[in-house]
Amino acid sequence: TARTFLVTRQEHLALFNVIFNQFWHKQLGLFAGKGQPMPIAPRHKRPREKRYDIVGLMAQKAQPSDRELDLPERAATYSDLELMRRKSFAMMTPEELANIKRLIQEMRWQVSLRRSRRWVPERKGTQLHLRRMLRGVGQYGQLPPRFQWQSRKIKQRPVVLLADISGSMEKYARLLLQFFYSVEQSLDQVEAFLFGTRLTRVTPHLKYKNIDRAVHEAARSVYDWSGGTRIGDSLRQFNRAWSRRVLRRGALVIIVSDGWERGDVTGLRQEMRYLQHRCHRLIWLNPLLGAPGYQPLVEGMAAALPYIDDFLPCHNLQSLTELADHIGRLGTGRSANRKLAARNEHVHNTTG
Fold it and tell me: Does residue 145 contact residue 135 with C-beta atoms inside 8 Å?
């Protein structure tokens, strides 16, 4: 009975038995009569327990448990995962790439919210709902007993993804589709495009529930996979054919490219300027940005840079995790780079 009430953990059972036996051994010695042995209660047969003394018990406690023996293995596993998160996609083995694809697929994305033009009734709104109040006057002949309020409806920002799948981006292209798939599965309004020398919309293919089929169908739909690069021409196709449909609600645009341009750099600059004015935020992901000492010196990247709100790396899993945190914390205001570009343009127009 005492063991039932006093022992709450399995590892304390042996210590309880030692102390219990020592205590009652002394008590029996005190109360036993002279020369009269104490009656011994009949014992029921039970499985033999391992006997301990105090020294043996403490020695056993000093030995590492199975859980403690597992700690180095767990630490190694955690360390391996951290190394994999920081390792460049271009340097990974096929086995590591398979693990990374699974981790990218499990990522969940969130984007900042926006206030739409549509007003909805709310108990604690930001503006009086005059139409609703006047409707009450016409119905009942008097104003309603309480003010009626309304606010602009809060909605998720649309996301537009454009990825370079030319020859220089070939080692990242399949992982980019995995990245696109995880974004499309997490958010409601996503449009995805791939480009090399021309633009291809792959949004319908990313809606498949099976990721392997989605990636396969998206890759198969591209005519110029691992070919040349004409970023300016591809953006011109997007701006003319798609921008009014997918950018009219303050969209977040993410371009993934190393910036190698074989076309007209002046045209790329013009299309980037137009695209930045049409969207809420323009993010450019460059896998080369994760390399030590990288500088955006190639003509295409240098031409696009003044019109980019956020220039970020995308060479490993850690950079994608940081991207997810970044777009989830974006506010409603303009970026510092966009403010600077607007100021410079104003000065140029004034002095020109």
Answer: no
186 in Cβ contact with 125 (< 8 Å): no
Classify domain 157-351 by CATH architecture. 3-Layer(aba) Sandwich (3.40)
- Measured CA to CA, the distance from residue 97 to residue 177 in angstroms comes to 13
What separation in angstroms does the CA of 218 have from each of 14, 26, 200, 202, 230?
64, 82, 9, 6, 20
Q: For residue 206, how many other CB atoms are within 10 A of its CB? A: 22
pLDDT tens track for 255-275: 999 999 999 999 999 999 999
Q: What is the pLDDT of residues 116-150, one digit of tens each?
A: 666 656 666 666 655 665 665 556 665 555 666 66
Q: 3-state class of 239 per DSSP?
A: helix
Q: What are phi and psi of 333, to 5 degrees?
A: -80, 175
Those residues with Cβ within 8 angstroms of residue 217's Cβ, 6 or more apart along the chain or in another chain: 205, 208
Inter-axis angle of helices 317-328 and 94-106, nearest 10: 10
Whether 197 shows a pLDDT value over 90: the answer reads yes
Q: Are strands 149-156 and 127-128 parallel, antiparallel or unpaired?
A: antiparallel
Which candidate, 94, 320, 104, 319, places its Cα nearest to that of 211? 104
Let me know: does 152 contact 116? Beta carbons within 8 Å. yes
pLDDT-derived band at 110, boundaries 50, 70, 90:
confident
Q: Hey, CA dihedral for 226, 200, 324, 268, is it positive or negative?
A: positive
Residue extents of the structural domains in the chain: 117-155, 157-351
Q: How confident is the model at residue 196 (pLDDT cuts 50, 70, 90)?
A: very high
Q: Which neighbouring-strand residues pair with 159?
A: 190, 252
pLDDT tens digit sequence for 237-256: 999 999 999 987 789 999 99
| pLDDT at residue 316 is higher than 50 | yes
**The model scores a pTM over 0.85:** no
Show the CA angle centred on residue 167, arms to residues 161 and 168, nearest 5°.
Answer: 80
Q: Rounded to an integer, what distance in angstroms lies between the CA atom of residue 270 and that of residue 100?
A: 37
